[in-house]
Amino acid sequence: MSIQVISADYLEAYRLRIHFNDGTEQVVDFAPFLTSHPHPQYKRFLSKDQFRRFYIENGHLVWGKDWELVFPVEQLHRGFIPA
Predict the structure, then answer these.
(1) What is the largest CA-CA distance in the chain?
(2) What is the pLDDT of residue 82?
(3) What are phi and psi of 32, to 5 degrees?
(4) What domains does the chain contain, in order, with CATH numbers?
(5) Are 80 and 27 in contact (CB under 8 A)?
(6) pLDDT beyond 90 at 1
(7) What would the pLDDT profile of 16-59 be if each residue is shown by its tens digit?
(8) Sheet holding 5-12, edge to edge
(9) Separation of first and last alpha carbons in the chain
(10) Hey, how many other C-beta atoms are within 10 angstroms of the C-beta on 28?
């Protein structure tokens, strides 16, 4: 069985509680990635309104209509996104 995201809840700032199909959950802070990543495409997600517009598609946590921001599910499952 591959790990998939089944739901996520916004907590505060850039933190989400992410629920997985294996029954586990992780709180992930996306701030280090968003504040240090040099690509301008990602900077728009520093707007909390934009950040809160995530959705789940095919077991992935996604932002933007064309998957503009998406992270490997394995990283989310470990609870750490490298900056």
Answers:
(1) 35
(2) 86
(3) -60, -40
(4) 5-78 (3.30.2020)
(5) no
(6) no
(7) 999 999 999 999 999 999 999 878 888 899 999 999 999 999 99
(8) 5-12, 15-20, 25-29
(9) 28
(10) 23
CB-CB contact of 67 with 53 (8 Å): no
Distance in angstroms (rounded) separating the CA atoms of residues 73 and 24: 13
- Does 42 or 5 have the greater pLDDT score? 5
Do 22 and 43 meet the contact criterion of CB atoms below 8 Å apart? no
DSSP 32-60: HHHHH---HHHHGGGSHHHHT--EEETTE
As a dihedral over the C-alpha atoms of residue 55, residue 42, residue 26, residue 67, rounded to 10 degrees, the angle is 30
Tell me, what's the pLDDT at 25? 98
Are 64 and 51 a contacting pair, CB within 8 Å? no
Which token pair is 49?
Answer: 């309104």
Residue 74 has pLDDT above 90, yes or no: yes
